[in-house]
Amino acid sequence: MATAANQFCTPGLLFCVVFENGGLPDATNTPVTVTYSGAAPDLVNGVVQVNFQVSASAQFGYFLSVNGIDSTVFTIYTAPSQ
């Protein structure tokens, strides 16, 4: 796993934050841990990759906020390890 680049989602800068969606318009959205943000390996120049830790309790999906502009909510499906 790449861990070096975090130039886009550096903790404390709040330029780029991934949130766990609270489910309601006025609900509290919880920031999640971004483990990598930067150039996407082996893809064309300008594509940015953002890796983050998913939560087992996330019921309403996630969204990316860049400089105060929010993405649409997206869902990540996982399965427990066996």
Description of the molecule:
The structure is a single chain. The chain is an all-beta fold and 82 residues long. The protein has one domain. Helices cover 0% and strands 30% of the residues. It contains no helices and 6 strands. The strands form 2 sheets. A 4-stranded antiparallel sheet has the order 2-1-5-6, with no helix packed on it. A two-stranded antiparallel ribbon has the order 3-4. It is globular and about 35 Å long. The two termini are 21 Å apart. The model has no long low-confidence stretch (mean pLDDT 80).
Based on the model shown, name its key terms.
82 residues, two-stranded antiparallel sheet, single chain, 4-stranded antiparallel sheet, 0% helix
Topology:
Layout: E1 16-20, E2 30-31, E3 34-39, E4 48-52, E5 62-66, E6 69-70
Antiparallel strand pairs: 1-2, 1-5, 3-4, 5-6
Q: How many β-strand runs?
A: 6
Number of contiguous helices: 0
How many structural domains?
A: 1
Major pleated sheet: 4 strands, antiparallel
Main sheet: which strands, in order across?
Answer: 2-1-5-6
Please tell me how large the radius of gyration is: 13 Å
How far is the first residue's CA from the last residue's CA? 21 Å
Structural class assignment: mainly beta
Overall pLDDT score: 80
SSE run: EEEEEE
| Beta-strand proportion | 25-35%
Low-confidence runs: none
Characterize the overall form.
globular
Oligomer: single chain
Helix content: under 10%
